[in-house]
Amino acid sequence: MPRNNLLNYRSSLSGHEIARSSRRPPQRWLPGNGFEHKDRRIAERWRNGISNAPGGHRPFSISVAADAAIAATAFLCHGQEQLQQLRGNAQPIPFLTMADSGRVDDLEHFPQYVARQIGFGDISECPQLGKLAYDYVRKTHGFEDNIFAAFSSEPDAEALSEKLMDELDRCILGYFAYHWKHAALMISQILDADIKPAGKLKSMVMEATRKQRFERVSRNLKVTRVFSTLLDEMKAIGIGGSFQEDVGYKEVMIPAAHVDRSPVLLLMGGGMGAGKSTVLQNKLLKEAFWSEAATNAVVVEADAFKETDVIFRAMSSRGYHNDIIQTAELVHQSSMDAASSLLVTALNEGRDVIMDGTLSWEPFVEQTIAMARAVHCHRYRMGPGYKIADDDSIIENYWEPIEEDDEEEGNRKNLSSDQNRELCRCRKPYRIELVGVICDAYLAVVRGIRRAILMGRAVRVKSQLMSHKRFATAFPKYCQLVDNARLYCTNTIGSPMLIGWKDGESRLLVDPSEIAWLEKVSGLNVDADNVHEVYSTEGPPPALLFRSPEPTSVWEDAVLCASRVANQLALKQALHLTSSFPH
């Protein structure tokens, strides 16, 4: 049965907003550490989501401006030692307590969080909801059928199922909006939900021996990895039809499709989790040119090498999810090298190339574009890359021309200057296109955490935010170096929105209201620990920054949504009445 999925841009959300506030006892927010309660009994009541209102019902506020401003002010912290009083809307925040040692003592589990959002005091009031919540966030096989079965006795079972899945999507956006410094714990709690929890001693031992375990696996699979990566490169470029032996200077290999046109290098750029794959699938591959050219194009993507890396797969298969970030970092450089090798090989061959990456490091991107401009006359290879010299100066040389050996040089000298020029004309210069993708960095973080749960590949939130900041800052410069540029925004529900474009020598044309996100993202805070710290503390909070005709934030549209309140009440009543959820 088809359904809308909010995280995949298919959900229909109300344009109205509402912020909910609960009359909670005084509590203090420790930046990055959660709440500190003076009264243990009150703390337990807060943890279970029970308000002091009569009957345990939570009052609602329709004042978005007041509640959002107060909540945002409470979270815009300026130091780890500064404590600020939290007032207003604290409902979406997962409960977190810290031990005196600085380790996490308790982090509210996702099912408990979902139950609290719907209005239950504890997940024990609806135990099956816990399993449904875990299955949904992990996309376990048959999770939709299980949700439909839970409401099968209700006359409006289909509508209730849609409401529950919609609420689970919003809970995902709320749950992963906080405590980013403990993202690995959030991920491991969800992945290990069906596994007997390891003792604290075992966890400490595993952390202490992580480096030794990684070194042992890397040493044992070193040779296997070399051949496996080489095979992946050969498959990606189509070695059977692309590489030919005994090709001399008079036998320049030109793909048949390129006889009448220049080959194309498409640079897909944007921070991690920006939605580049969505733009590629929903926009570019549906265009007339790429729908035909993509069949023979070489796709260069470091993440693809990372997922097939034998060391990455060996470490991931061991099931210790606390290593999920370190495992990805272990194979990061090797996957980048494999992608670079594939890129320079494809460009040397004159193939159409789609390069999918963050494009966050300006020197690398600039040198890559310069190489593509000259590769029709000179073959290239990978350079030494980023190096620090003896005098502490930084040398960056990512590509270098291939020096001709004596035999090849002799053959080349036997050609006249006219023949050399004709040789260069045999291969047309590359046409370089840039497609940038931006989004609310908070939304990208949520996507990244969700991807880690589904695919087992995670990145540090700080690295993710840094990639968004750097790309947004560099995008205007990149536009001056390419032949064609487009910028998409994936904040909107539905198809990605084109908000900027440039063709030829023209200037970058933009959508005046939506392009504000580019400047916004370029100034984000890479040390943010939650949604309220992502952007500058100056001015109004994120939920109020963009008002019509300017775009609203995803947080406001999805989490502080008017329709959500009614759906939560309907779900709570249905879950109480449904026999599948005894109370």
TrEMBL record:
Keywords: ATP-binding, Nucleotide-binding. InterPro entries: NADKc-like, P-loop_NTPase, Zeta_toxin_domain. Transmembrane segments: none annotated. The keyword Cytoplasm does not apply. It holds the Pfam family Zeta_toxin. It comes from the Eukaryota. The keyword rRNA processing does not apply. Residues 259-371 form the Zeta toxin domain. One of its GO terms (molecular function) is ATP binding. This is Zeta toxin domain-containing protein. It comes from Apostasia shenzhenica.
